[in-house]
Design brief:
Order of helices and strands: EEEEH
Structural class: alpha+beta
Helix content: 10-25%
Shape: globular
Largest sheet: 4 strands, antiparallel
Number of helices: 1
């Protein structure tokens, strides 16, 4: 699913479940059709990929920003 892939310009990234967390992983993508995108390499059939990578990045950024600012 396209929303699960972050386009970083020269590379693409997905988030893979690792226990209670999601870890970023660079992937190689192929063809795209509507909201679907082919992953050529970087994940296995057993990997659980986050369906909305942008939401993970946004929430992680909010947690980081709130923990680095003093009130």
């Amino acid at each position: 699913i396209l929303d699960g892939v972050l386009d970083l310009g020269e590379s693409k990234m997905v988030f893979i479940r690792d226990g209670d967390f999601f870890r970023p992983r660079v992937v190689e993508t192929g063809r795209r059709s509507g909201q679907m995108i082919q992953i050529i390499s970087g994940v296995t059939a057993a990997d659980e990929v986050a369906r909305q990578a942008g939401a993970l990045v946004d929430s992680d950024a909010l947690l980081f920003n709130s923990s680095t600012h003093e009130n």
